[in-house]
Design the sequence.
């Protein structure tokens, strides 16, 4: 009886502590809330008075809060979980359900998730079936779960403590994958949809024993893989620009510069993929999207208006922003190769932005009032988006934080608006 009361009191303390940990993960102020329902599979090793082995399924339903960049946590969330485990050696099942909550710090992609809930386990040897409590801690490494749980089950003959080590996998973590604000490149568009290719990565292994360092390297690699994907999507976009310029009977120099930009984007994609492979430690291939069919513009004026608006949005602003961001990233990275690559990308993205300015000026001169009105609307739209707080996300080492990215975007926008007004003679 003393043992039973001791475990009962200990179980109450552990339950209270775990519940406090779950509630404490809820942020006081959230910039954005998502809902994620993420199933997973795992294998379970039970240790204590009896050893056991089993397989299980689980489901975590989480309200995820993505906070602003000045918050200590990049992401946090709370929700419910349910698990079912088949214990092979005992030919019985264990079911559990309860609350979970976790967070991912700004400076580390490893999430921390806590669980507290009810558990029922079937009879194991001479221990009858019974109910109890379960607390646990887990983290998500790349595409795998590592969890350590403790159960206290009362089968009528006293509390039976057991420890459980679970190793599993799911498509992404309970809090979603780390997010990065902004993207490189100038993709083709089908309406408002950016046409992007795919990234193929072979293998899934960690070469370092330190999981934190290995996961950080993987996060850097994933970011560069996304950059390679964006740069590859820019290749057919500049081919399409050259095609549309030729259709609009633009000066040959503009068409030539658009084709030079194609070669630049090929190099950017290759360099980004090479850096991604270095950090991921595995082969990687990036798909180049197919060339989208030419847009059926009603008249030549509509074609010129579209070219002017796309040049303002994707070139004067988009590539102008990425040129400055790449230059700033080159100043803080520790790798000489990455720094040299970023400096080259920054310089060539700046030439792409200048090409966009020249296309914009030529298209509005040829398109007249219709093209000028379309650009005026796009300029007003960009002004309406100014000052929007960036959504928080994990900051990859060597990258800019959301505040710095937003500051650069606003500075480039203000300078671009001033330049456009000077071009029109109204500034």
Sequence:
């Amino acid at each position: 009886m003393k043992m039973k009361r001791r475990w009962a009191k200990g179980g109450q303390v552990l339950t209270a502590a775990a519940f406090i940990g779950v509630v404490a993960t809820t942020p006081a102020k959230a910039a954005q809330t998502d809902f994620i329902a993420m199933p997973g599979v795992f294998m379970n090793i039970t240790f204590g008075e009896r050893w056991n082995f089993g397989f299980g399924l689980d489901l975590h339903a989480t309200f995820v809060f993505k906070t602003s960049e000045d918050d200590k946590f990049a992401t946090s969330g709370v929700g419910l979980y349910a698990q079912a485990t088949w214990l092979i050696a005992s030919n019985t099942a264990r079911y559990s359900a309860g609350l979970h909550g976790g967070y991912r710090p700004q400076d580390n992609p490893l999430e921390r998730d806590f669980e507290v809930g009810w558990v029922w386990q079937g009879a194991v040897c001479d221990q009858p079936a019974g109910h109890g409590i379960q607390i646990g801690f887990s983290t998500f490494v790349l595409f795998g779960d590592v969890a350590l749980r403790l159960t206290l089950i009362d089968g009528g003959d006293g509390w039976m403590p057991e420890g459980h080590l679970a190793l599993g996998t799911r498509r992404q973590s309970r809090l979603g994958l780390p997010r990065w604000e902004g993207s490189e490149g100038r993709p083709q568009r089908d309406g408002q949809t950016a046409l992007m290719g795919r990234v193929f990565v072979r293998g899934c292994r960690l070469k370092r024993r330190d999981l934190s360092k290995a996961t950080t390297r993987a996060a850097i690699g994933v970011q560069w893989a996304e950059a390679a994907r964006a740069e590859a999507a820019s290749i057919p976009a500049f081919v399409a620009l050259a095609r549309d310029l030729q259709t609009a009977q633009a000066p040959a120099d503009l068409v030539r510069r658009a084709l030079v930009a194609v070669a630049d984007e090929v190099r950017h994609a290759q360099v980004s993929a090479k850096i991604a492979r270095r950090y991921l430690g595995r082969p990687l291939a990036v798909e180049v999207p197919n060339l989208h069919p030419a847009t059926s513009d009603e008249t030549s004026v509509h074609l010129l208006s579209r070219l002017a608006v796309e040049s303002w949005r994707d070139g004067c602003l988009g590539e102008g922003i990425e040129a400055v961001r790449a230059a700033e990233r080159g100043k803080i990275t520790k790798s000489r190769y990455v720094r040299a690559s970023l400096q080259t990308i920054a310089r060539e993205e700046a030439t792409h932005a200048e090409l966009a300015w020249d296309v914009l000026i030529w298209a509005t001169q040829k398109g007249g009032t219709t093209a000028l009105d379309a650009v005026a609307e796009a300029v007003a739209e960009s002004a309406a988006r100014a000052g929007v707080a960036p959504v928080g996300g994990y900051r990859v080492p060597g990258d800019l934080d959301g505040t710095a990215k937003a500051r650069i975007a606003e500075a480039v926008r203000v300078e671009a608006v001033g330049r456009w007004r000077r071009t029109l003679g109204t500034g």
